[in-house]
Amino acid sequence: MATGTQEILLARLDAIGTSLARSGHGLALIGLGSAGLELDRLDQYSDLDFFAIVETGHKDNYLENLAWLSSICPIAFAYRNTRDGFKLLFQDGVFCEFAVFEMPELRHIPFAPGRIVWKNNGTPETLLLPEPNQCAAAEHSIEWLAGEVLTNLYSGLCRNSRGEKLSAMRFIQVYAVDRLLELSAKFETGTAAARDSFAFERRFEQRYPASAQALPDFIQGYERNVQSALAILAFLARHVEVNPAMRRAIEDLCTNKERGSR
Question: How far is it, in rounded angstroms, from Cα 126 to Cα 229?
Fold first, then answer.
């Protein structure tokens, strides 16, 4: 980790907290992800994820006027990516993704526990924590995951046969692979690398190194939907009992495509 970079990012987050405190209606600043409780992951490629908590009735002021951020460093680029927040690049290269919430909203927002960078004296820390089970990832059964992989492969190959390569690529190399990542976790003991509650693919290579070795076979690119599908099917068959009818249907689509392309 580049210690200098980490210091710059943490100093910027502290400066945002100070600015929020001076703004008049701020209640707290919560650092999330590598800017929160996972500071060991903070490096030169990290962005600053945070929630700014403000008094009821003042949220729009903070979203419509970003002076509380531009006063720290000029803003080079910003756009409102959700109704609650922005993605923003400071002129010095620090990138942020943030949301602004009023306190009553926070209890309805799913998020992983973060680090309180700043809060005013009247705001209890307990109100800045997610509701119980709010950040728990959904657990799917092996049967459901395998079914999703098979049906995504089938739908993708049908679209590939029609010449819809882009849609096919997404079904085969994105949707089916997403489910296959979850399935891999059922058979491989993960490492201690932190799991992202909202994006299972984050740090997958570090968490499941054995399964990750097969990723290049699953994601071979726009022109290799059939080859990717066959690799996914073979991997699936090594770990679960694959329905024979679905396997034949998928293999037939792969064969037909290969014959038609000669």
Answer: 48
Q: Which residues contact 150 (CB under 8 A, 6 or more apart)?
A: 233, 236, 242, 243, 246, 247, 250
Question: What is 3-128's CATH number, 3.30.460.10, 1.10.3720.10, 3.40.50.620, 3.40.50.2300?
Answer: 3.30.460.10
Alpha-carbon gap, residue 105 to 87, rounded angstroms: 20
pLDDT for the residue 259 = 42
CA distances from 163 to 166, 204, 241, 246 (A): 9, 31, 30, 22
Encoded tokens for 253: 């689509």
Q: Select from 220, 145, 217, 223 the least CA-distant residue to 181.
A: 145
Residue 62 · residue 52 · CB < 8 Å = yes
Show the tokens assigned to 117.
Answer: 């960078």
**pLDDT of 164 higher than 50:** yes
Domain residues of the chain, as ranges? Answer: 3-128, 142-260
Q: Is the pTM of this model over 0.70?
A: no
**What pLDDT digit, counting tens, does each position of 11-42 carry?**
999 999 999 999 999 999 999 988 877 787 78
Q: CA 211 to CA 31: how far, in whole Å?
A: 31
**Whether 110 contacts 137, CB under 8 Å:** no
